[in-house]
Write a structure and sequence with these properties.
The protein has about 140 residues and is α/β, with parallel strands linked by helices. The protein has five helices and six strands, in the order E-E-H-E-H-E-H-E-H-H-E.
Length: about 140
């Protein structure tokens, strides 16, 4: 699993980039780790980029475990205001939809899934044509791997 997390403080944006194969156990550990390291304040948004995702280990079981972990973390760390998930491939879209549906009632974060960069960014109140150009315009952020 290739993964990076970058926080752009001025934009109050966490950018999560996942590629390759996702194992839910590893993903849960990494998300808990970045939430503790970043200690985010109220009002941040999350952009999850699944454009490079190839496969997901145990999508239904793993998503349920992951949502339960997220619910626990919300009591210790400020939850995101909104989460835009950019999922181009059918596999990524199904994975994102499972996560979105299982999250209902377990997180105060508003979660939406998108197939295009402009739509995902618009949900986050960003007027830009592409994710890569937008991120480049933000300059260097704090990146965790």
């Amino acid at each position: 699993m290739s993964q990076s997390v970058t926080y752009y403080a001025a934009a109050k944006l966490v950018y999560l980039n996942y590629g390759g194969h996702i194992n839910f156990t590893n993903l849960a550990i990494k998300v808990a780790d970045w939430k503790q390291k970043l200690s985010l304040s109220k009002g941040y948004d999350v952009l999850v980029d699944l454009r490079s995702l190839l496969s997901v280990d145990r999508p239904a079981d793993g998503a349920d475990e992951f949502v339960k972990l997220q619910e626990k973390l919300h009591h210790q760390h400020e939850p995101a205001r909104r989460m835009a998930i950019l999922a181009l491939s059918p596999e990524a879209f199904v994975f994102a939809r499972i996560y979105e549906q299982m999250s209902q009632g377990h997180t105060p974060t508003e979660i939406e899934i998108f197939r295009t960069d402009p739509d995902a960014l618009a949900f986050l109140d960003v007027a830009a044509a592409g994710v890569d150009a937008y991120l480049a315009s933000l300059g260097a952020g704090l990146t965790l791997r």
